[in-house]
Amino acid sequence: MKNAGNNVFPIFDELLQKTDKEELLKQKSFTVWMTGLSGSGKSTIAKGLERYLHEQRFLTKMLDGDNIRVGINNNLGFSEDDRIENIRRIAEVSKLFINCGVITLNCFVSPTREMRQMAKEIIGTDNFIEVFINASVAECEKRDVKGLYAKARAGEIKNFTGIDAPFEAPTNAAVEVNTAELSIDASIQKVLNYIIPKIENN
Amino acid sequence: MKNAGNNVFPIFDELLQKTDKEELLKQKSFTVWMTGLSGSGKSTIAKGLERYLHEQRFLTKMLDGDNIRVGINNNLGFSEDDRIENIRRIAEVSKLFINCGVITLNCFVSPTREMRQMAKEIIGTDNFIEVFINASVAECEKRDVKGLYAKARAGEIKNFTGIDAPFEAPTNAAVEVNTAELSIDASIQKVLNYIIPKIENN
Fold first, then answer.
1. Strands (E), B18-127
2. Which of A71, A102, A179 lies closest to B95 in CB terms?
3. In chain A, % of residues over pLDDT 90
């Protein structure tokens, strides 16, 4: 910085852009925002997507409760305010990844239209693909992989979406996957059919 | 999910690891944590690093006030608690990027040893490279690119590091760059000399 004045080194004034990173990675970046009840299959589908895309040499980042709630959002609870702040931060993290050329695979219940709209506004409409992982409360409760529905019924968890808190189904998701009707493979394939043409950066 | 029981699809139970992403990107991932006074040259050096590494086809993500304070941390101020929370979230974001194989270039004053130690613990010692961008208060105040020192002297900004809040210099940074003595190019080169051997993923 010796003798550095204004505009002496203008090249350093400009950061690399999303398009530069996309060119490096040979892909387009965006967020696949999966919304649906606990147990509907969001993370299972995301893991399948990530593995398939990795094999095709695309770079993705899966974001879900397992790496968000124990990390950046470990100081948030499940009050209304905290659930909104949870989604806000997730959307901001997604934006950082997108601007780095990375495709994010987001798995969050995100039960209200307001939350998803906020995420969409932060991330940007063009970079936001809403995927509705649809399965009824009865179906998810039957699966109850994590035992959360049983706890919610027993009153041990309050404000549990589908039991004592509402889930507002998306009305115009880009893709809807009914996991009570489709196999895991078919569910993954349905999402891939939609996103693969958007990834290819020609 | 039809008929899905425990361990029916074990392949989906495992997420891709840091090493899988590093293999895809042909690089090792870690955080280059640049600490130093406002105006010491952190962001200028990071921009140079990012541009050089991009030309070498390495994927980096620069994190600084410009994309953090207006985004994920837009609800934080400059109180002691908020400054710690600021650094905590930045470290958690860095960890997400590292686990995705991406090298992060972090430009934050991060004035106390406690803050940097917290960041190091979150990110992991093996993934944390501390770089001290060293320039005296007098030198930084002379540059005063953003006019912040003048405001701090006028009392318009409180708790400004170097003026009315302390900066605890690192005692064992991996690299130290004195930007009052070195040119921008030489400063960038000094950091590159240290990190390039660590990036190459053979």
1. 31-35, 60-64, 103-107
2. A71
3. 83
Please state, in angstroms and rounded to a whole number, the distance separating the CA atoms of residues B201 and B15: 21
- CATH architecture entry for B17-199: 3-Layer(aba) Sandwich (3.40)
Letter string b/e over residues B90-119, b meaning 16 or more CB atoms within 10 A of that residue's CB: bbbbbbbbbbbbbbbbbbbbbbbeebbebb
Give me the pLDDT at residue B79, please: 86
pLDDT at A11 over 70: no
This complex has an ipTM of: 0.92
Gap between the Cα atoms of B73 and B91, Å rounded: 12
- State yes or no: pLDDT of B107 exceeds 50: yes
Q: Which CATH number fits domain A16-196: 3.40.50.2000, 3.40.50.300, 3.40.50.1100, 3.60.15.10?
A: 3.40.50.300
Q: How far is A12 from chain B (nearest CA, A)?
A: 6
Give the number of other CB atoms < 10 A from CB of residue B192.
18
- Indicate if the alpha-carbon torsion angle A97, A98, A104, A110 is positive or negative: positive
**Min Cα–Cα distance to chain A from B155, Å:** 26
How many contacts does A have with B, using Cβ atoms within 8 A? 126
Tokens linked to A77: 């609870």
Task: Please indicate whether, in this complex, the C-beta atoms of A61 and B16 are within 8 angstroms of each other.
Answer: no
| Closest Cα in chain A to B41 | A1
pLDDT recorded at residue B10: 39
> pTM for the whole thing?
0.92
Q: Do A15 and B62 touch (CB under 8 A)?
A: yes
Say if the Cβ atoms of A93 and B93 lie within 8 Å. yes
CA A70, A91, A147, B16 torsion-angle sign: negative
